[in-house]
Task: structure prediction
Amino acid sequence: MRRRELLKYLSVVPVGGAMSQYVDFGNEDHRVLSKAPRNLFEELGVRTFINAAGTYTAMTGSLMREETLEAINYSAQDFCMLDDLQDKVGERIAKMVHAESAVITSGCFSALTLGLAGILTGNDPDKVSLLPHIDGTDIKSEVICQKGHNIGYGRALKNTGCKIVLVETAEEAKNAINERTAMMFFVHIMSDQGQIQHQEWLDIAKKYDIPTMIDMAADVPPVSNLWRFNDMGFDLVCVSGGKAMRGPQSAGILMGKKALIDATRLNMFPRGDTIGRGMKVNKEEILGMYVALEKFMNLDHEKEWKAQEASVNHIIKAVKSVSDNIFTEIVVPPLGNVTPTLHMNWDADKIKINGKELQRRLREGNPSIEIASSEDNKLVLTVWMLKPGQEKIVAVRLKEEMLKMV
Result:
């Protein structure tokens, strides 16, 4: 039995016998017996796909590296105290990202909620128990945010009981500050949608002694963003763990000033009467996230970039062989997931296929492929979440479908 045939066999072993059947490699005297893996996706009828779209939460983010999975499996074998683990991991991460302190949260959204909670309560346990019911209390209740930064993730801040005050100009930001102002909030991926840039935002906040937080959930690469905003002087920095760093999808990192991280942790699990009790991160996720960050920071990012460019160019070569009426461009987004991205369009009079229809065919084909977006005669895809060799599959499938319409 060839390796390819063996792998195909293993993927379709009936579920009922999946944990009891063994594969015989043919040497009866020195037989190697291996349990056939249980194909849970197939058992449940869940579609899996080649991810040429990116690190979208709805698409389960990214795939964890072997080192991360090893850390998760290793840590599942023993007990420890969660606070002790967070202490030690937080110390290591803080040094890596130029912060005073850090803590693993259940995603970036959780980091936003918990970081603001720490600002609101400080080290006062009575205030901790009040959140999010802060009306009529002396707890500050307003967060200032630029109108262009007001995207759905502001819900994480509202979960503390605060309201968001929207501003557009620096003068409006200054005028919005009052005795109820708890924090000034900046969203990096939307920085081109606001009039006030990072440093001016920080300068205003520092002048009035207002804590600052930046959401940079999907803003690595570049790897330097992991310490850039700490170096700039943001008090709290929030990032997703399950995207480019390829940590657990349910993990994130909150980093920043030690006093604020300490206060944040009073609002977190394992403490009971807190706003963050349900935002649990287990020891496996904590260590998995730590190892994922460590691995990501030590990657040869130039080599990674060149490999991604090579994969995009492989796909470009395939589709351009179909027709001179197909046009391609490698675009690097200036904000959020800064990676080589393929933009492809075609002459709709010569190639009779709609972008949405092409996207549907890729999705419903075998293997299923997801791309980033599509329009009338245009599609966008990325390669950085592809497994090695999958760029060849994407290239073949795109070429197949385009040839049908020439």
Q: What stands out?
A: DSSP finds 15 helices and 15 strands in the chain. The chain has three domains: 3-40, 50-58+300-403, 80-297. Confidence is low (pLDDT under 50) at residues 1-31.
